Amino acid sequence: MASIWKGSLTFGLVHVPVELKTAVRSDHISFRMLHAEDLSPIKYERVCQAHGEPVPWNEIVKGYEYEKGKFVVITDEDFKQAALDESRAIDIIDFVREDEIDPRFFETPYYLLPTKGGDKPYALLREAMRQSGVVGIGKLIIRKKQHLAGVRVVGDALVLELMRFPNELVDVSEFSFPASTAVREQELAMATQLVNNLAEPFDPARYTDDYRSNLMKLIRAKMKGKKVTAVEELPEDEDATVLDLMARLQASLEEAAKGGGKKRVAKTSRGGRGRQKKSA
Question: Cα–Cα distance between 166 and 97 in angstroms, integer?
Fold first, then answer.
């Protein structure tokens, strides 16, 4: 797997030569838009809204819309003036406790691998961070764009996660949420008991993309010329109407006690909500 960035990870006066490699891979199913008559791929053109005619690349400029329908043109020279120096370093600015970082800041993970001469300082930084229980926060430039980044320890690896800057987060005050005073003590005690009964160690293998699996089955069947049978519709919830919350909690606790609660809660409909059996 090719590196997407090479440089050094720096903290204090210590430099660790590293390279960046992706830690995740896209697993989505891609489709092309086709002409139904002959299954030829559809070509998209850049069409001017004012004239309705295709526009060649050499007549296209970039514009920032500062008001509805009003633009200021930004040229290649403008972009050069705004660009930062091409630093080849990830400068750790601070080390912070992991539980102090809002998870909304984290975006895309990458593996940091040591390059020639970097094994010892890499291991030194990793173990120091492991013992301290901290995440390194710094900045780096990838493809002329500056990113905020967090460096954390995952096993024997240092994992860099691209982060969002504060202005990219939607302020929680823009929304309203129910107050804790709406919860009765007895309901909270039962809900807490149910959560504890269903608690298990995290096992990522338990969670699969059911929609993707169904879609691939249909695709493989069509490739073989087989008749595609529609996926059986799930029955409507018998308890779709709003029932007493305490009754729901009690029924859930009884099912969990019988050993079937975890499977039933984990199973989801295509709408994404767990289905629960109506209590007798």
Answer: 18
CA 50 – CA 42 distance, rounded (Å): 23
**In what helix (H) or strand (E) does residue 163 lie, and over which residues does it extend?**
strand 157-163
Sorted by where each starts, the structural domains of the chain and their CATH numbers stand as 5-26+83-167 (2.40.290.10), 183-266 (no CATH)
155 Cβ contact partners less than 8 Å away, ≥ 6 residues apart: none
Report yes or no: 130 and 43 within 8 Å, Cβ to Cβ: no
What are the tens digits of pLDDT across the range 174-223? 999 888 888 888 888 888 888 888 888 888 888 788 888 888 888 888 88
Residue 147's H or E segment, with its range, is: strand 145-154
Distance CA 53, CA 2 (A): 41
Strand partners, 10: 15, 91
Tokens of 263: 């499977």
Location of structure tokens 């800041």: 105
**What pLDDT, in 10s, does the model give residues 235-255?**
444 444 444 767 777 777 777
C-alpha separations of 6 from 28, 61, 86, 134 in Å: 28, 32, 12, 24
